[in-house]
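Why Alanine racemase? Reviewers of the renewal asked for a concrete example.
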Amino acid sequence: MTPAVRAEIVVDLDAIRHNVRALRELTGVPSMTVVKADGYGHGMVEVARAAREAGSEWIGVATIDEALALRAAGDTGPLLCWLTVPGDDWAAAIDAGVDVTAYSVAELGAIAATGRRARVQLKVDTGLSRGGATAQEWPDVVARAVQGERDGSWTITGIWSHLAASDEPAHPANDAQQEAFERALEQAADLSPEVRHLANSAAGILRPSSRYDLVRFGLASYGLDPAPGETPDLGLVPAMTAHASLALTKPIHAGDGVSYGHTWVADTDTTVGLVPLGYGDGVPRHASNAAHVLVDGKQRAMRGRVCMDQFVVDLGGDRPEPGSDVVLFGPGDHGEPTAQDWAEAAGTISYEIVTRIGGRMTRRYVGTSAR
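Here is what the prediction returned.
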């Protein structure tokens, strides 16, 4: 296809629906589709709607603002948020029927101070050393949670944690964290949460014992591999394709340098093409001289440094017309690189590739009932 705009992201909502259904069938337990960070760059509202249509019981976001935006867009199902700072509007989230997450006695106090009966989930830190109550703090958090249930401040709807190394199935942290989670659940025996959840995408696929009552699927919902080299083929379909229009082509000669710093110098006469995207649009600068794109049916190597607004590719003597379609990455069905290919070229993870891409690019949805 020839994009009608300078550059665009195309999101296939049918792929999202397919992935959500496939993952739910694999695990046999309810799923939470995580749509934080604007749906990992795919569009938070649209992905949440597609996931609900595919049967995802829960939606997960990081912040209260994200949760309220989903409610404003019409989402009414179970919705969890988990990252707050002092001064956040707990009352607005509670009034919107959002499940909020508490890490500490102080946060439980802030929730109680709203005077509203809340839906609260408790997060325990089992070894990621990020959010959540430590093992030392956990008994006090549980005691305050039990007190709040008795006095009508809240209902505890969930107890959960997050794994540090689920993409490495043999890593000893996985067993250690699951054992710590089991101990935390035993200490919370006076609570009866609706859901206990530990597994993210990689663990949900690779570690059945970690599924409990719910699996939080983030990256896999978007059709990307959460544990490259470890994940079996589940038939997941990448939902994002990033396109641009080729701005121009030109011949260069052997010895000509390309882009800032002349980090690439042509060793023979060739042609190059200008792609009107750069790090201002989320194209990683670390992909310089490493990533490839698809132009005119062939993968073309990026040459020279990625600039703020543009980068250059080697066309190897070909002269496709300006306006020709450039595919940065997509599902890979037509010979184009994938987000994983770009991640490897840039020395990062596919999460970052799809979440960062955007900037001045437009976003278009395809698939049944795309709106």
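Residues 58-213 form a domain with the TIM Barrel fold (CATH 3.20.20.10). This is the kind of structural detail the renewal will allow us to pursue systematically.
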